[in-house]
Design brief:
Layout lengths: L13 H6 L3 E5 L2 E6 L4 H10 L2 E4 L4 E6 L3 H8 L12 E7 L5 E11 L2 E6 L4 H11 L6 E4 L4 E7 L3 H5 L15 E6 L2 E6 L8 E7 L3 H12 L5 E2 L2 H10 L34 H9 L4 E8 L11 E4 L2 E11 L6 E8 L8 E6 L2 E8 L9
Helix pairs in contact: 2-7
Pfam families: GCV_T, GCV_T_C
Subunit structure: The glycine cleavage system is composed of four proteins: P, T, L and H.
Function: The glycine cleavage system catalyzes the degradation of glycine.
Amino acid sequence: MSATVSELMKTPLNAAHRALNAKMVDFGGWDMPVQYPAGILAEHEAVRTKAGLFDVSHMGEIRVKGPGALALVEHLTPNAVSKLAIGQVHYTAFLYENGTFVDDLLVYREAEEEFLLVVNAGNSDKDFAWVQKHAPAFDCTVVNESPATGQIALQGPLAVQILQPLTKTPLDPIGYYFFTHGEVAGVKCLISRTGYTGEDGFELYCAAGDTERLWNAVMAAGTPQGLLPAGLGCRNTLRLECKMALYGHEIDDSIHALEAGLGWIVKLDKGDFIGRDALLAAKAAPAPRKLVGFKTLEKRDIARDHMPVVQGGKQIGFVTSAAPSPTCGINLGLAYVPTELAKTGNRIEIEIRGRAVPAEIIPTPFYKRTK
């Protein structure tokens, strides 16, 4: 039974979304905007050509600090945390012992002995419990800062142009996957050059109570330049075009990091971490399945998340995410298929409403911005 609106968790921007007449949905227990009156296609296009502004305050933030902080985060994640410079971010994961996903996350190195871990909203409590469970063996403190933190994401080619007049912090020197601290529109922020859209842009973290002021200032600065508020609907199509993983779709507790195509975040030579032995064994044996990109061959055939991939009437795989692509103009998706079929140009079949429809494996990412 779905929760009533009064039972759903709300970000600090809930009233702002309703004032903009956003269509609100239950997203993992949060009352979130799926789209605004302009619609998903217009929001998607704005992010690709101008800019869009997202509320991502539902994400979880966990701070790890102290002499044992680095050792703990190295133990919990497969990427090489020790190689992060202060002011640098990387993408990584929490893994179970069998190499499958607790969650994926970003690690921010705030100082030699201080890290900010940004995790998915739906997994936030589980992730905090996971970090707490392993922390006692390390000399550090672990604090769940999620309730006290707001976050908005300004994404698109005009992001610098819109944001720079609002801050004295020079934005051009901030590299991709780097961050700094400064004020934006008088609000103290962590200014991070990251995002989940494949475009240039910034994620701005601030105190929860300052989020609405920050949102309103960025909207006012950007609207004359074509900035649109953007919801979960276009966030999904944007990340899908760029083959960015979504927990519960491309990754979960039944899928290990190597078969998910995320071997690049697994540094097996860095020393021990949770899941390393399982991934070493997986690397030594051929993977039985692989994540591939596909397009359906008929325009009327639109695959959707979790549909079966079939061959001769039997299921041989499954779609993880799929949608019509506004940028590419085709119906595309991602799917796990047997490794022997996972070659570009190969034909597969997707079962859509009881009908096996033809699809072709195509290269990924489907979209990559020109820099």
